């Protein structure tokens, strides 16, 4: 049986609450509010999964700081070609304290290990996001 958050087992509600707090800190209230408002009965369990596991389990672990997690996430998104998510996580990286220079260095690294074409697209996306934020 699930509760109002879609949680199904012991501790799931707490992970959901912890995950939502981190999700808001990293992505910002406006983004999370849009995602929550756009949740439908069809997508509710997926939103709960993201909140509990990505944000409530992984992003809350003590082994890496959020800056490091942001660098890893940017790299993984470039490697996978997840361009919409990349834009969101460039914003998150700034919120997590990465400088424009550090974001540039992460993307340069991806050119070698993920591909030059992927890095080219990532630079275009990051440029647009950072310009929108008034950072470049």
TrEMBL record:
Pfam family, one: CMD
Domain spans labelled Carboxymuconolactone decarboxylase-like: 45-128
Superkingdom of origin: Bacteria
InterPro entries, A to Z: 4CMD/NDH-1_regulator, AhpD-like, CMD-like, Decarb_PcaC
Stored NCBIfam families: decarb_PcaC
Protein name: 4-carboxymuconolactone decarboxylase
Species of the source: Promicromonospora umidemergens
Phylogenetic lineage: Bacteria, Bacillati, Actinomycetota, Actinomycetes, Micrococcales
């Amino acid at each position: 049986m699930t509760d109002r958050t879609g949680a199904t087992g012991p501790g799931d509600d707490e992970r959901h609450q912890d995950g939502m707090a981190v999700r808001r800190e990293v992505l910002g209230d406006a983004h999370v509010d849009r995602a929550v408002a756009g949740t439908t009965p069809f997508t509710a369990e997926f939103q709960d999964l993201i909140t509990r596991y990505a944000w409530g389990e992984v992003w809350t672990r003590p082994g890496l700081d959020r800056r490091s997690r942001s660098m890893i996430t940017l790299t993984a998104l470039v490697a996978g070609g997840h361009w919409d998510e990349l834009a969101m996580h460039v914003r998150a990286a700034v919120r997590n304290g990465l400088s424009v220079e550090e974001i540039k260095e992460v993307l340069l690294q991806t050119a070698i290990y993920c591909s030059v074409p992927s890095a080219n697209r990532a630079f275009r996306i990051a440029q647009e996001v950072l310009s929108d934020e008034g950072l470049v």
